[in-house]
Amino acid sequence: MTEKVAVVTGAAAGIGAACAKRLAAQGIALGVLDLEAERCEDTVNAITSAGGKAVALGADISNREQVQAALATLRDAFGPISIVVNNAGVSYFTPFEEITDEAWDFVFQVNVRGTFIVTQEALPDMKAAGWGRVVNISSSSAQTGAVSMAHYSASKGAVIALTRTLAQELGPMGITVNNIPPGSVLGTIMADANRDKFNVSEEQLTKSIPVRRVGEPNDIANACVWLCSEDSGYINGQTIAVNGGRVVS
């Protein structure tokens, strides 16, 4: 996996940062992208201090011009992009009857439109190389539904459908597209909501997961790195659920 370049969105912290660090450890040059480049400094410093290559990028992923500028900066630094990890997303907890048109549109704008734009803008590099990896981070709530998260669950369901479609469309070009729907992961939206909003203790949450522990960002990153590797070249259009058995299919 040497001499490859990846962009990871939402990589300032949490799952995105873990994915960026694990990819960098494999010799991949990283574009660490978040809403503002300054947010990415910790992730970039962790990568470079370990001997890796990384550049901080700032962009609203739902804004095509900002994404184009960020990816141009990444190409200038390290070359053509061959790996995209679409991790950035937003979520809110609102009863269905109280969701406004504006709130619904905003969640889809970031979670779905943003994934669409980043992938589309990186695609020419992968097509030219005849090789590429796209990993979309969806959510287990898209598989099961989630109370007070209709807009979020629906948007992540759209990401899963987009994954399956792109896998069929881009597969002949040497580009695989897969998705990871995390379950409860420490420090992320779902884990925090279970604890704070729904008054579920860590002990109760742990007992509800067959492996009897809450996930960590590196659990997701481990699967992501494999899906981005040469070893996973025959894996395409798949949902690789990393949730400790919360969702069994």
Question: What does this entry look like structurally?
Answer:
- With 249 residues, the protein is of the alpha/beta class.
- It has one domain: Rossmann fold.
- Helix content is 46%, strand content 13%.
- It has 9 helices and 6 strands, in the order E-H-E-H-E-H-E-H-E-H-H-E-H-H-H.
- The protein has helices spanning 14-25, 41-49, 64-78, 101-129, 141-144, 150-170, 189-196, 202-207, 217-227, and strands at residues 5-9, 29-34, 54-58, 83-86, 132-137, 175-180.
- A 6-stranded parallel sheet has the order 3-2-1-4-5-6, with helices on both faces.
- Helix 2 (41-49) links the parallel strand 2 and strand 3.
- The longest helix has 29 residues, at 101-129.
- The protein is globular, with a radius of gyration of 17 Å.
- The two termini are 31 Å apart.
- The model has no long low-confidence stretch (mean pLDDT 92).
Question: How do the strands and helices of this protein lay out in sequence?
Answer:
Layout (H helix, E strand, L loop, with lengths): L4 E5 L4 H12 L3 E6 L6 H9 L4 E5 L5 H15 L4 E4 L14 H29 L2 E6 L3 H4 L5 H21 L4 E6 L8 H8 L5 H6 L9 H11 L22
Parallel strand pairs: 1-2, 1-4, 2-3, 4-5, 5-6
Helix pairs in contact: 1-9, 3-4, 4-6
Mean pLDDT metric: 92
Biggest sheet, open or closed, and with what strands and sense? 6 strands, parallel
Helix content: 40-55%
Termini separation comes to 31 Å
Q: How much strand?
A: 5-15%
How do the strands line up in the largest sheet?
A: 3-2-1-4-5-6
Labels describing this entry:
six-stranded parallel beta sheet; 46% helix; 249 residues; 9 helices; alpha/beta; Rossmann fold
